[in-house]
């Protein structure tokens, strides 16, 4: 199969509808464009329901396969991303139903990664990288604690930048219902941040900072 190098959300100037038309006309290799264009979005949607990284990838693959098999049914009444998100949500919910008999299947003990992308810079020293990583984990842990119906809306709106009308279309909700749930999600998230921050010591002076002060002082008094 011919490989097409693309990037998320910004693959060339070919509209989704044109890509889909060409796929249905026989250029199946062009499906890779849609995969790379919407991988991040689909990951974040499914990750809102499932926390096991391995399971998320399995569900993503199933969703893409289902989308490919049903591509001929895509009529363009909604955007392709909305159509794909609906498939992803359905696959995620099916996975959850299948695994209800095994409570450990979607455990919380895995590392939480790649939900929010914090700014990267080559000038970061190891200590700043560690702080950035800790902040990212704190944010992800707080989002994970949100109830599912609020978590998916927060992810779509605040992380993916989807409009309320798009979210309403994806989840079959009214615009007003989306607004209410988004407001509630933000308030709950504030509460979770407070709980998480109160559980951990702050303004500690340790590790490399402590070692550095000790080293500098001892060098100056000898």
Question: Can you put this structure into words, describing what you see?
Answer:
This protein is an all-alpha fold and 222 residues long. It folds into 2 domains: 1-110, RNA polymerase sigma factor, region 2, helix turn helix motif (Rna Polymerase Sigma Factor, Chain: A), CATH 1.10.1740; 114-222, Arc Repressor Mutant, subunit A. The protein has helices spanning 16-24, 31-47, 53-69, 80-98, 126-144, 148-159, 164-171, 175-199, 207-221. It is globular.
Strand elements, count? 0
Q: Report how far apart the termini are.
A: 69 Å
Look at the structure and name the CATH superfamily of the largest domain: RNA polymerase sigma factor, region 2, helix turn helix motif
Helicity level: 55-70%
Radius of gyration: 22 Å
Shape: globular
Question: What tags apply to this protein structure?
Answer:
64% helix; Arc Repressor Mutant, subunit A; Rna Polymerase Sigma Factor, Chain: A; single chain; mainly alpha; disordered N terminus; 9 helices; 0% strand; 222 residues; 2 domains
